[in-house]
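Quick one - inputs below.
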Amino acid sequence: MNFYLVGLSHKTAPIEVREQLAFPEGRLADALQQVAALPGVRETLIISTCNRVEILARAESSPTDPSVGLAQFLADFHQLPSQRIEPYLYRHHQREAIRHIFRVASSLDSMIIGETQILGQVKEAYALARSAGTLRGPLDEALTRAFFVAKRIRSETGIASSAVSVSYAAVELARKIFGSLEGKRILLVGAGKMSELAARHLLSHGGSHIFVTNRTPQRAEEMAASLQGRAVPFEQLFEYAAQCDIVVTSTAAQQFLIRKADVQRLLSERKNRPMFLIDIAVPRNIDPEVNKLDNVFLYDVDDLQQVVNANLQERQREALRGEQIAEQEVEKFLRWLKTLDVVPTIIDLQSQLEQIRQQELARVESQLGELTPQQREAVDALTKGLVHKVLHSPITELKTLAQQPDGLRLVETVRRIFNLKQ
Amino acid sequence: MGHFWLRIALVLYSLGLLHAILTVVGRRQKIFRVALGAIALGAIFHLVALVEDGLAMNHFPATNLSEAASLLAFLLAAAFLLVHWRYRFQSLAVLLFPLIFVLTLPAALDRSADTWDLPILRTAWLYLHVSFIVLGYTAFFLTFAAGVLYLIQERELKSKRPRAFYYRLPPLESIDDLAYKSLSIGFPFITLGIVSGALWASSVWGPSWPTDPKIAWSFATWVIYLLLLCARWVGGWRGRKAAYFAILGFVAILATWGTNSGMHSFVLR
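Output:
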């Protein structure tokens, strides 16, 4: 039983190549059928997203390497010469192929490690291959396990736990400062797109009252309406700032709007309750000196980006633990595969019955009394013949059926009804 | 029998110690649930041991240093469970679990070594005095631990370059909240402990007791915490300054605890 994987991804191929080799959704079922019809191929699955195109197949080993056929198919299907796509392809066989599909499903191979989209895409590819009838044996099991591995890695490591976008990083920081955002008040100074996005994130995580202020009051009114907040006059900026826990600034002012002395005043009015200031304006609206004050946390765009970068590194560290889990699961899968092999099953079957025969002979030994060598031989031959006859049909069926798609289910059934160790 | 239960508690607490070591060395989070269960179960056995000891010896088991330490360990375990239930602070475990283990150790290993077997100490005053002080110390240890966590997390947030701590420590406000609550709970206990001690000492040893160094230290400690509490109430102190002060207060507690290793100097005069 052999698994082959041929594909390309953002790691090996530029977008120009990936878009040429992607499978249009409408033609995927057709493509699956064509791969399944290649010599030796028993099962197949095609994953085609904007970041990767992969063909995974289970094939019987034949004189020609099945992965050559898969690569050729990939070129032919898109009407490209195969030597043109060759430099971008990677090929994996057996253990490597299984590990690869586990890593892909778990988002360890993604451009942004831990992103959740890829799992959904692999699940779609799986559903499609199932309905096209090209998935019905060990490869099916491999995919089912890939989904399990993805779930396990997500819950046991932190690959998906920290923010990787600037606006979400702001929410994460707010939660690191305040704990819960429940009941926190937010002031938007300036009505830009970025601050609106940040505000929406903050609101969806529990932030309550939102105030919007802007030099042109009309724009403030509009944004306040869309965020279900309140527009307040620009002159009263500091009055409202004192009531707010989170202040987001994004005006086009050329000088600092908020200085250290202003914030000091705000703090004493607030009895030092902490403030989180997010300055997404360039040039900056808040004097960076403000960050030196106790209980004030000021982040500008670069700071947020720095947090995002640190989060990405953290994800990478967590991914190392994910790799270990994937490796364990590959090991488990291969062990399961071994039990499905026909030859060991036949041997197990024979030795199991032989053991029973020996036990039964030993048990009746005393009742038989003294036997002549001929008699002993006859008893031996009789029992051996019995075992042989009983096993004849199961063994021949196993040998022939194992070649067919449902053979593995049969092997499993045989192992179970004869109580062979797993 | 009490001894036996205490040893079981100690074995369970050692799982907590293991968790703390593994977290520091290899930041493995999975064992936390096991450790948490072990600490909870250990605390139950510990309580059984305390009650049995109390019944067997006909007095509250807080009459010598190792007993007081073991009582403190039990209270810390209980306090941790409470805090975890309320705030989900896993990171506190790294500080607390080893301490719980170490404090239980002397009582579990040897027992009758140094009982304060002076008849003069066998009064209800002793139990009151020691219990209040130990309860106060438990709360102040939490204030101290919260202070340390606060300073680390605040640095992470101010530096804007989050490292491993940033991801594993709780939010600043929750830490500060814990610091404030534990301070407000600890202060009345320490005050009662000192007052009961003073009343008792003046009734037995007369007016010479305030010259004892341990008493000087404990007054200093009390004043530090009083200032901190007032500053928080009136001056709106919180966060970093409060955290530094809480750490200072705890250093004073250690000095108090360390002076004369548990007993006041005038007792033996």
